[in-house]
Automatic annotation (TrEMBL):
GO biological process: DNA replication initiation
Upper classification of the organism: Eukaryota, Viridiplantae, Streptophyta, Embryophyta, Tracheophyta
Protein name in the entry: Nucleolar complex protein 3
Compositional bias (Basic and acidic residues): 112-127, 385-396, 406-419
UniProt KW Disulfide bond keyword: no
The keyword Acyltransferase is assigned to this record: no
């Protein structure tokens, strides 16, 4: 137990000390006392001994200790006064003033008790003196009880107040945060409205909006970015801002020019900060989509304005993004730049195509196909690939002027200065008028347009040839680009682009291009130029595309030369057997049927017969859409080649037209050596019994070559259209075999269960869920019972074994005792 604190009894305040020498007793005082002795008798009866003892309890021992005690008392009084002055004027509980009996009003102050530490220190200092009066035991106990009760009360009040205070603090913080966000939103709205109303006078507000958008709350940042986007779209001028040079700034200008310069400089600095902020935020996942959307909107709305290069570099970088939303936004923006060249004069198109070329080079052609498909939206003038020709009007004008000069020389005086001045003035005015007309009509200079389109076209073909060269490299790994098939994701859009712009290819590159397409299509197997491993890198769809592009290029450029594309036809003849519906694209195959067989000129009879026979065999193996496209191609070939209709005859020895090969060889790689004229189209007899009515009807019309009213449509439909129409019909078409199977199941099974004709999912819907649930429950209960029985049997075996061992032990023990 620690030392108990002693109760301090302080002496009363002493009267002011007066030295004995200063006390003067007059004669009048002595006479007054003598005359009134009866009134002064109480002085003689005073107990001076007890008074002296009470006053001089400490002074008898040490006068310095008594003086220090009085000094401490004075200090405490002064401290208490200061605390009362610094204390709260009004208690939170009693907020109303108090009126005294005199009628005065005053506010209660918070009274603070003296600390116990000071009392303990005082007690320690005073307890050293032996003359100090100590507290009794009863007083000490009462004092301790009182202190304990007060401590318990304070603890209870603190426990009750702390949770309420914490909750109130949290609510206040939330309220303050919400109020701050609402105030920022209102501020953004007010500043944006003021800027849209009068941008020149309120241009300073745009910097305040930028400061608000730097907030830590993501919602405020997104709102600020969108608000600034709307403001910039509205107030950005239709021209590119050029800041004045130092010399121009030193010149004296009018107030209107100063105001315009200040407006343009402030707008340009704010726009630069906004673009930099968007470029920085697009690297963060939280703000990526919002920042990219703002960048794309700015680039599409104001492609002529400053800092277009920064916007374009960021947008082009994301045209191969893994995020579908970001990639679509960027691709749509780039395509809008290509289609709307009037906003930027074609400069943004050149820059974008060059950036895409650099992107393809840096990523080694491993990008999303959309990054090259955007190039298909480019448009070029038809006479871009042709050399420039001087205008006929200029030639005639030059001739006429020469004739006039020759005829006027002898009649007119050459030194006539007035006519020279007049001609110069007329030429100057015409130049000024033409310049003003171009500026007002935004008409682009034809030479400048031709130059930019030439640069764009060269960059486009640079991309295409790089992709083709990359596809020819053997030993490449598997592609990991999402949304792409095969190890060459950019080959399909590259081939589509070559087919679209094939009429603009220079004839000097034509031989190299055809050689490259021949290798990619796999025609080098026969000639030995290409190994088997490198040809197997491409899928069937990609090799078919190479054949299609070769036909397009030759038809657009060298159609007049009458060149036979025998190698591509041989490869196409072999690729028909390698086609798989689930793996390869049926649209590409139907397109190859149309371009290589239907749209081509008259085929050789042996080759046409080989393709007719192979397509008829192909129709037996695949779905109705592919079969329909193949049969439409067969009908086109039979209509063009009348002699091939002998394949429809059912003679015992085959067709009536004998070729160089007397027997049909179905596994021949060259259609000219297959001997298809010696065969019969027996496949049509099976196709006439096809489950799909469209396939069976066209097969019957081919077998009779009948062009009745219901089949005229098919005779004029291309293989692509037939494939697309039938593929859409197949989504809602059900095979008749399913109906038969469903009816057989209904006969075999329970007749009470309702069975619908259709897929297995429809049949499963009719099963009673409660019955299935009950059967599963019984099954699993049985399995659990079997497991429990196995456990019980194993335990029973162990216990019986233990009992047998115990009995054996008892017997041995008895024997030993005997």
């Amino acid at each position: 137990m620690g030392k108990k604190k002693q109760k301090l009894v302080l002496p009363p305040e002493l009267p002011p000390e007066v030295p004995d020498e200063a006390v003067e007793v007059s004669d009048e005082d002595v006479q007054f006392v003598k005359e009134n002795l009866e009134y002064a008798g109480f002085v003689s009866n005073l107990d001076t001994h007890s008074i002296t003892k009470h006053v001089t309890r400490v002074a008898d021992a040490n006068e310095e200790a008594l003086e220090s005690l009085y000094e401490k008392r004075l200090r405490k009084k002064l401290e208490n006064k200061e605390k009362e002055q610094n204390a709260l004027e009004v208690d939170p509980v009693d907020a109303l003033p108090v009126k005294t009996l005199d009628g005065q009003l005053y506010y209660r102050r918070v009274a603070k008790e003296p600390k116990a530490e000071e009392e303990s220190k005082e007690g320690e200092s005073i307890s050293k003196d032996p003359g100090l009066v100590k507290l009794t035991k009863a007083e000490k106990r009462a004092k301790h009880k009182k202190l304990r009760k007060e401590a318990k009360k304070q603890a209870k009040e603190e426990v009750q107040q702390t949770p309420q205070a914490e909750v109130l603090d949290e609510v206040k913080k939330d309220l303050t945060a919400e109020e701050a966000n609402e105030s920022k939103k209102y501020k953004l709205a007010e500043l944006g409205t003021a800027l849209l109303a009068d941008p020149e006078s309120n241009i300073k507000h745009i910097k305040e909006m930028l400061e608000v958008s730097k907030d830590g709350d993501s919602a405020i940042v997104i709102l600020g970015l969108r608000s600034l986007l709307a403001v910039f779209k509205d107030i950005i001028p239709g021209y590119r801002i050029r800041l004045p040079t130092e010399k121009e700034q030193e010149m004296k200008v009018s107030k209107a020019v100063k105001k315009m310069r200040f407006y343009e400089s402030t707008l340009l600095s704010a726009y630069k900060a906004y673009v930099q902020k968007l470029v920085a935020l697009q690297k963060q996942p939280v703000y990526k989509r919002v920042a990219v959307r703002c960048l794309c909107t700015l680039l599409a709305a104001v492609p002529h304005f400053n800092f277009r290069e920064s916007l374009l570099a960021t947008v082009v970088k994301h045209i191969s993004s893994h995020d579908d939303v970001v990639r679509k936004l960027c691709c749509e923006t780039v395509m809008s730049l290509f289609t709307n060249e009037g906003k930027h004069g074609g400069e943004a198109t050149v820059d974008a195509v060059k950036m895409i070329a650099e992107l393809v080079k840096d990523h080694n052609c491993q990008l999303h196909p959309d990054s090259v498909e955007v190039l298909l939206s480019l448009s070029f003038d038809e006479d871009l690939g042709k050399p420039e020709k001087p205008d006929a009007d200029s030639r005639t004008n030059n001739k006429k002027s020469k004739k006039r000069k020759g005829s006027d020389e002898p009649n007119h005086i050459p030194d006539n200065e007035r006519k020279k001045i007049r001609k110069e003035m007329i030429s100057k005015t015409r130049e000024e008028v033409s310049a003003d007309f171009k500026a007002a009509s935004y008409a682009q200079d034809p030479q400048e347009r031709r130059r930019m389109q030439s640069e764009t076209l060269s960059a486009v073909f640079q991309i295409f040839f790089r992709i083709l060269k990359h596809a020819m490299q053997p030993g490449l790994g598997v592609n990991t680009v999402p949304g792409a098939s095969g190890s060459h994701p950019l080959l399909a859009p590259c081939l589509n682009g070559i087919g679209k712009f094939s009429h603009l290819i220079d004839l000097d590159f034509m031989a190299d291009l055809m050689r490259c397409l021949r290798k990619l299509a796999g025609s080098g197997i026969q000639s030995g130029d290409l190994s088997e491993n490198s040809s197997c890198q491409l899928t069937v769809s990609e090799r078919l595309r190479c054949c299609i592009v070769a036909f397009k290029v030759m038809r657009n450029n060298l159609d007049a030369l009458n060149i036979d594309l025998q190698e591509f036809l041989v490869q196409f003849y072999n690729l028909i057997l390698e086609y798989h519906p689930g793996r390869d694209q049926g649209e590409v195959l139907a397109k190859a049927f149309k371009i290589m067989l239907c749209d081509d000129r008259q085929h050789d009879m042996q080759r046409a017969a080989a393709f007719i026979k192979r397509l008829a065999t192909f129709s037996l193996c695949f779905g109705p859409a592919e079969s329909m496209a193949a049969l439409v191609s067969v009908k086109h070939l039979l209509q063009k080649n009348v002699k091939c209709r002998n394949l429809l005859e059912n003679d015992a020895g085959g067709g009536s037209v004998a070729g160089a090969i007397a027997k049909y060889q179905p596994y021949a790689t060259d259609p000219n050596r297959s001997g298809a004229l010696a065969s019969v189209l027996w496949e049509l007899n099976l196709l006439m019994k096809h489950y799909h009515p469209a396939v069976s009807s066209i097969a019957s019309s081919i077998s009779t070559m009948n062009t009745s009213n219901n089949q005229v449509y098919h005779s004029h439909v291309s293989p692509q259209q037939a494939y697309m129409e039938l593929s859409q019909e197949n989504k809602s078409f059900t095979e008749p075999g399913d109906i038969k199977r469903a009816s057989n199941k209904r006969k075999r099974g329970n007749d009470t269960l309702p069975v619908k004709v259709g897929s297995d999912l429809n049949l499963m819907d009719q099963v009673d869920e409660n019955e299935v649930r009950k059967k599963f429950a019984d099954h699993f209960l049985l399995l659990r019972d079997i497991q429990e029985n196995e456990k019980l049997r194993s335990e029973l075996d162990r216990t019986t074994l233990a009992l047998n061992l115990y009995e054996h032990y008892k017997k041995q023990k008895k024997r030993k005792t005997r």
